Amino acid sequence: MMGYAIQWLRSLAFIIQMYLMMPLMAIVFVPWAMLRRDGVYTYIRSYADWVRWTARWMVGLRTEIRGEIPTDQVLVASKHQSFLDVVLLVSALPRSRFIIKKELHNAPIFHFFGKRMANVPVDRGKRREAIAQMMADVQSGRNLPGQLVIYPQGTRIHPCEKAPYKVGVGLLYEQTGYDCVPAATNVGLFWPKRAIYRRPGTAVLEFLPRIPAGLPKEEFMQRLEEAIETNSDRLMREAGFDPEKCEWISSKA
């Protein structure tokens, strides 16, 4: 019990400093980001590196990125379990831009840097209008080189939870004509949503073999879901967690 309490306090300290550093580092990089788009990516990668470094020594949470990192213009469809998978994606991808919920885009820091990255805000409460607006926004920024990131389930998913894959990812794949790189993760085991406690261990984000452009939308959706779900479950079992029973099966983590 004492060990849990100490880890909880360490987790709280980690979270506080992490969110304090976000605006402090942003102030430093704003002038550069206003002049050059490279400044945006230097900021987000620097912040991501800070989060990964402090997580390791403050709460014992190591992070690992596996697979072939895409550097060309592709669609990246990733499992989303917590803020940590966002950190790992921006840490790895050279020119990421995200499909994000509109509420997050309205926050001052996210709005400025998000616009410079050409992120695409989506109003999730209006599905039909959201899809149309998303496609229009993607097309308007299509000539910007980089990796367009979408969370195909539309929100953060608990490691034990199953949720359908949204049609938006299929439309993006079909209409952009990009290859798609799926990404699996187990980060939610160590960094849960809406919780303070950070569990020590190794959180992994893994880029999987790409799905080539041009497949029928239904076939693409089936292949994408199978790849992400199967490999996310594999990563969770590797960490010592059984996603089917929703319980830890070893002390490996």
Could you please describe the fold and organization of this structure?
- The chain has 253 residues and is α/β, with parallel strands linked by helices.
- Helices cover 50% and strands 16% of the residues.
Provide a concise account of the structure shown:
The protein is an alpha/beta fold and 253 residues long. The chain has a single domain (63-248), classed as Glycerol-3-phosphate (1)-acyltransferase.
What integer is the average pLDDT?
88
- Pattern of helices and strands: HHEEHEHHEHEHEEHEE
Number of domains: 1
What distance separates the N and C termini? 18 Å
Assembly state (oligomeric): single chain
β-strand number: 9
Q: Which class of secondary structure composition applies to the elements?
A: alpha/beta
The fold-level CATH name is: Glycerol-3-phosphate (1)-acyltransferase
CATH superfamily heading: Glycerol-3-phosphate (1)-acyltransferase
Q: What's the tally of helices?
A: 8
Output the strand order for the largest sheet: 1-7-6-2-5-3-4
Mind telling me which CATH architecture this is?
3-Layer(aba) Sandwich
Proportion of residues in extended strands:
15-25%
CATH class: Alpha Beta
Largest beta-sheet details: 7 strands, mixed
Radius of gyration: 18 Å
The percentage helix is: 40-55%
Q: What best-fitting shape do the alpha-carbon axes yield?
A: globular
Are there runs of 5+ residues with pLDDT below 50, and where?
Answer: none
